[in-house]
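Session log. Operator J.P. requested a structure for one protein chain; no other inputs attached. Running the standard single-chain path with token output.
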Amino acid sequence: MFTGIIEAIGTVRDMQPKGGDLRLTIASGKLDMSDVALGDSIAVNGVCLTAIAFDSSSFSADVSRETLSLTSLGNLNRGSSVNLEKALTLQTRLGGHLVSGHVDGLGEVVSRHDDARSVRFSIRAPDNLAKYIAAKGSITLDGTSLTVNKVDGSVFELNIVPHTLQETIIADYRSGSKVNLEVDVIARYLERLLLGDKAAEPATAGSGITEAFLAEHGFMK
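Structure written below.
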């Protein structure tokens, strides 16, 4: 688990194809590697990866085909900047929100514009994730814990303050940029809980939480 508070901006040092998947080597920047052990989890742009080798200034991790297909890691190049966060401990301050490091989908930057010293971004989420995104709720972009300002359909707005722009890769976002999205884990579990006994039934077309389902179970009048 992670907090979504980025600890360092790293740089992709090497990318080696390995039997159909990929081995990444990341220069860790100012990330403190002194307490990292073999097998520890480090989030790279919000993707939980396992350190298979490391030294005081870098680490390597294998990225599976599944992860490459569901995240933006396959779009990285040597020299790309990435957000880094080590896994939280019981002593870690939870300054952001609980983040699993399991990406739900890819979003796309629709627009950005300056607002005083902050920058406002509009992000389009995949349609299947829109129901989990709420105004003033939490969302993770490339591993960064953020608060949603407004929601309009599948597009949501964020206000990014100068400190976050300086300490993450968000300052590099432009219209069309692809970003890893992880929705609030509470929203996902709430949907599952609302299904009740139906959660044990095989998935079928049109199954899940619908207006008819909510009305049938007394959640709507």
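Operator note: The first strand starts at residue 8 and ends at 18.
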